[in-house]
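User: Sequence recovery, please. Input:
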C-alpha cells in the first residue's frame, strides 16, 4: 500500500499521515495495557493502589495494542490511497447516480466546514490587526474574545443554507431525472485493475471464511501458522502485481495506452 502511495506521488502526504497515526498508535499501546489485564506474560505488577487495585501489564496486551494501532494506520492509508487514485469530483459524480441525497449531504458538509474555517481565519486576522490579543490567560477574557466566532458560525450557516436552498430550487433538484454534463470514461487499463482487485477480494474472502490470517495474542503469544503465512504471501503477491502495473503505467506511457 505504501509503495502504491509513493508511486502516485503521495510521498509528502504519506509522511504526514504516518506521523499523526503513530501518535494514536502509541497512545493505544499505552492505554490498552493499563485497561486490559489479560495475558500470561507479566512484565510489570504494581502494588495495590487505593480504588484502582493492582495494575498488571502483560506483553500480550502491548502486542494487542500494537496490532490495533497497525490496523488503524492501514485504514487511514487505504483512504489516502483512495484519494490519490480517484478524483473527488469524479467520485461524487459516480455515487450521486445511486445515492444522490447522501452524496449531496456529504458534499455540502465538506463545503460548509471549509467555508467556516476560512471565515474564522479571516475574522481572527482582522481582530489581530485591531489589537486583540488571543494569548490572554484569563479564561473570561478568552471567552469574550472568541464570542464573535460563534456569531460568525451562526450567520454563515444560515446564509449558506439559504443560498444552497435557492440554488437547489433554481436547478429543480429532485424534480426529475438527474442530468450529467461530464462522463467518466472507463478504459481498458481500468478493467485490468478491477480484475486484480477482484482477485484480491476473492483471496481475502476465502481466507475470511477459512479463518486464515487471523492473529489473537491472548492468552499467550504464538507464532503464525503455516496456512496463515501462506495466505499472507498470496495477498502480498496480488498487491505486488498491482504495484508493478502502476509503476509500469507511470514509467512507460505506451504500456498505459496498450492495455
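Assistant: Recovered sequence (259 residues):
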Amino acid at each position: 500500500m505504501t509503495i502504491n502511495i509513493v508511486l502516485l506521488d503521495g510521498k509528502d502526504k504519506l509522511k504526514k499521515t504516518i506521523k499523526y497515526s503513530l501518535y494514536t498508535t502509541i497512545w493505544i499501546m499505552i492505554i490498552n495495557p493499563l485497561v486490559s489485564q489479560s495475558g500470561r506474560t507479566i512484565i510489570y505488577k504494581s502494588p495495590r493502589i487505593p480504588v484502582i487495585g493492582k495494575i498488571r501489564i502483560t506483553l500480550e496486551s502491548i502486542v494487542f495494542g500494537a496490532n490495533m494501532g497497525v490496523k488503524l494506520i492501514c485504514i487511514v492509508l487505504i483512504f489516502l490511497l483512495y484519494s490519490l487514485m480517484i478524483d473527488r469530483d469524479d467520485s461524487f459524480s459516480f455515487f450521486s447516480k445511486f445515492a444522490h441525497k447522501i452524496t449531496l449531504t456529504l458534499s455540502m458538509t465538506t463545503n460548509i466546514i471549509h467555508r467556516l474555517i476560512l471565515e474564522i481565519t479571516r475574522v481572527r486576522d482582522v481582530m489581530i490587526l485591531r489589537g486583540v490579543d488571543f494569548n490572554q490567560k484569563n479564561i473570561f477574557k478568552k471567552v469574550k474574545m472568541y464570542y464573535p466566532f460563534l456569531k460568525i458560525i451562526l450567520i454563515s450557516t444560515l446564509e449558506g443554507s439559504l443560498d444552497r436552498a435557492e440554488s437547489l430550487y433554481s436547478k429543480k433538484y429532485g424534480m426529475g431525472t438527474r442530468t450529467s454534463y461530464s462522463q467518466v470514461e472507463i478504459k481498458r487499463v481500468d478493467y485490468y485493475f478491477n480484475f486484480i482487485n477482484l482477485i484480491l477480494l476473492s483471496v481475502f474472502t476465502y481466507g475470511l471464511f477459512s479463518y486464515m490470517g487471523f492473529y489473537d495474542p491472548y492468552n499467550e503469544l504464538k507464532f503464525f501458522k503455516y496456512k496463515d503465512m501462506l495466505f499472507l504471501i498470496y495477498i502480498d503477491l496480488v498487491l505486488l502485481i498491482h504495484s508493478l502495473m502502476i509503476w509500469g503505467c507511470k514509467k512507460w506511457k505506451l504500456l498505459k495506452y496498450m492495455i
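The first helix runs from residue 2 to 7.
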